Every structure is written in C-alpha cells, then in structure tokens.
Inverse folding.
C-alpha cells in the first residue's frame, strides 16, 4: 500500500453519484467511517478489479491516504468523458437549446483529445432528451390543479367580444381532435348556435386536419404560415441529425 497527502478530484457520474479520480482510475464510494472514506474501483464487478483507496475528508477535500494496485491500466480519456457527459446532461436540464445545437456548442469547448472517445452524436442526443424528461414537471390530472380565472364576458370599453375556446388535451391524436370538435358543436347547440364555418385554420398536423374535415365536411382547411415555418425548421433539424448519424456510422 502507498501513502501520500495528495488530494483527489471528485467527479460527478452520469447517474448523479460522486466518483473519485485516483491517478486516472475512477473509484466509487464503498463506505465511510467519520471523515475516513473507503473507495473501490468502478470496474470491481465487470473486470473483477480489487483496486481500492482510502481518503480523509478535510474541509471538503479528499486527501489520499493509501491505495492498492488495479488489474487494468488507467484510461486517460475515461475521466474527461464522464465529465463531458455529466456537463451535457446538466446543460440539457438548464437550457432550452435544441439537442443538436446544445451538443455542438459544448463540443466546441472540448479538447480534440477527448472528442474521439465520446459516444456517438445520436447517443448524446438521446442523453439530452432523457435528461430533460427527468426534470419535466408532472402533468396535472384534474381541473382543480389549475388556477382558473372567473368567466370573462368582454372588455369594459368598445363592447367588443372575441369568442375564444381553450382546451387542454392529453395528446394530439385524430380521435382526441374529433372529441374536441364534437364537444364544441354540442356546447354551441346548447346555447343556440349552429356551427357551420366556411374555413378553419390549423397547423400542419394531419390529425387536426382530418378531424376538422370529418366534423365539418364542407369546410375549407387552411394551414398557418407560422406553423409551416416551424414544421420546415423541424424537418431541417431532423435531417441534420440523420446526416450526422450517418457520418458517425461511417467514421
């Protein structure tokens, strides 16, 4: 066993747990007794490595007391790769950047020595998506979960009223849109209004277009230019991902 007074860097793993960088080896915490910490090699099970280390925690710093040899060589890129993936997940949870843009912006800050050892572009993109799903707020289950304002009848001036109907939908399926239009027609009939629109403006969702044409057979369906631009931009980004994935496969 070796003894030294050097400090060891704490590295946050992809799963949010602390690992210790000891001479290029990543160690996981086994236990602690007071401020004395016992660590074992992260590959103890997969590679049957019995490498271990002991540190003293003093003022939030881990001082290496002793360590044993490992059954494998240290991976110089391993620590930096773990740091990079952890940082990508952190940025994903804190920003609204598109996955492609977020990854490209962060990759520009990395050393060229680390990039070849990172997961594929597609794998990193999936990491961003999964990270954001874990921090999303749970979906409300009841109307009581919302702060609903009192009924609005119109403005205090000009006596002009623009009738609007808002609906909260659990998904964007054609069946859900048809249920919405049916409910709207039924409500209108109850207050003495016969809905017979000449045209309906929607975004470019096939489910919404099909449902509106089914419930209002004579309607002229028009698409929104704003949503057309959004749809085109999503297609460009999707194609960029596919091109990058194909490039990663070839490389």
């Amino acid at each position: 066993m070796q003894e030294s007074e050097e400090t060891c860097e704490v590295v946050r793993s992809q799963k949010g747990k602390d690992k210790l960088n000891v001479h290029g080896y990543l160690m996981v915490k086994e236990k602690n007794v007071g401020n004395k910490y016992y660590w074992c090699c992260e590959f103890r099970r997969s590679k049957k490595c019995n490498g271990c280390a002991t540190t003293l925690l003093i003022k939030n710093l881990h001082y290496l007391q002793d360590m044993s040899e490992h059954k494998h060589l240290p991976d110089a890129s391993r620590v930096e790769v773990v740091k990079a993936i952890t940082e990508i997940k952190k940025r994903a949870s804190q920003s609204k950047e598109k996955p492609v843009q977020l990854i490209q912006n962060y990759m520009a800050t990395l050393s060229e020595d680390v990039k070849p050892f990172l997961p594929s572009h597609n794998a990193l993109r999936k990491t961003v998506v999964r990270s954001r799903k874990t921090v999303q707020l749970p979906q409300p289950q009841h109307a009581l979960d919302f702060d609903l304002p009192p009924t609005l009848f119109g403005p205090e001036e000009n006596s002009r009223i623009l009738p609007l109907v808002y609906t909260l939908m659990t998904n964007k399926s054609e069946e859900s849109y048809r249920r919405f239009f049916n409910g709207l027609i039924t409500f209108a009939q109850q207050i003495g209004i016969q809905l017979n629109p000449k045209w309906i403006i929607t975004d470019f969702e096939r489910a919404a277009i099909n449902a509106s044409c089914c419930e209002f057979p004579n309607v002229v369906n028009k698409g929104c230019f704003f949503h057309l631009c959004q749809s085109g931009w999503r297609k460009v980004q999707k194609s960029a991902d596919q091109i990058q994935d194909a490039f990663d496969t070839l490389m």
